[in-house]
Design goal:
alpha/beta; Rossmann fold; 4-stranded antiparallel beta sheet
């Protein structure tokens, strides 16, 4: 479903932010992407929908990520940004949810019907007609996920989805993500969340792929994690 083959990227005047990264995510997998600050997680995510242009090859559902395929690739990929305020730009939640589908050719009625189904599935129908500036941070993060799901993506990318959430909203978010039938790549410092959601983990450090394996194995390896400036999940360190 998603493949990286020798992917390398450098910001101007800097050492490579990604260097020779190769791995694939199979259909239906939920894969955690972990690493310390500056490891390359967000950079890798941005390369998938073509927000950054890397060398090497990235394919999404068999389509190479290049300028010719970019529109079709972006229809297959949903990207939940770290800051929902950077994603929610319309007055109301429903306006954000139908913006993409309408621009892809659906009527407003069709787009609203699809949005209503997503809101019901996520249990947040109460947010439908709320103003974005009047909902809480946790509600806005759930609304951002709903906005992406309304596009019907095959693959979801999530960048630090649990950041700044209180315990109740964090648990609601985890339960929501676990219940979604989507291929996912989730970048996070919240290793307990990754352990709870993901069956597989990829560890990056300095833009290089350090480890790729079962989440339970990698996240229990204290020596490996500490060597790359990470700590055991709290649930495993007691």
């Amino acid at each position: 479903m998603l493949r990286f083959d020798n992917v390398t990227f450098s910001y101007p005047g800097s050492a490579p932010a990604l260097e020779g990264v190769t791995f694939e995510v199979n259909d239906g997998e939920k894969v955690g992407l972990i690493g310390a600050n500056g490891a390359g997680k967000s950079t890798l995510m941005k390369c998938v929908p073509g927000l950054l242009e890397a060398s090497g090859t990235i394919t999404v559902g068999g389509l190479a990520v290049n300028r010719e395929n970019l529109a079709e690739v972006r229809r297959k990929v949903g990207y939940v940004l770290q800051d929902p305020d950077s994603q929610m730009f319309m007055p109301k939640v429903i306006d954000d949810m139908i913006f993409g589908p309408v621009n892809y050719g659906l009527s407003r009625e069709e787009a609203e019907a699809g949005a209503d189904r997503v809101l019901e599935d996520l249990g947040i129908t109460r947010l439908r007609d709320r103003y974005n500036h009047r909902i809480s941070g946790g509600e806005k993060r759930m609304a951002a996920i709903a906005t992406v799901l309304a596009m019907g993506p095959d693959i979801m990318l999530m960048d630090e989805p649990s950041s700044s959430l209180d315990p109740r909203n964090r648990r609601a978010l985890i339960n929501t993500i676990k219940g979604l039938d989507r291929t996912m790549l989730i970048a996070s410092h919240d290793l307990d969340m990754i352990l709870d959601i993901c069956s597989r983990v990829i560890l990056l450090d300095g833009g290089k792929l350090i480890a790729d394996g079962k989440a339970a194995d990698i996240l229990r390896d204290r020596e490996l994690l500490e060597a790359h400036s990470l700590e055991l999940p709290l649930s495993l360190s007691r």
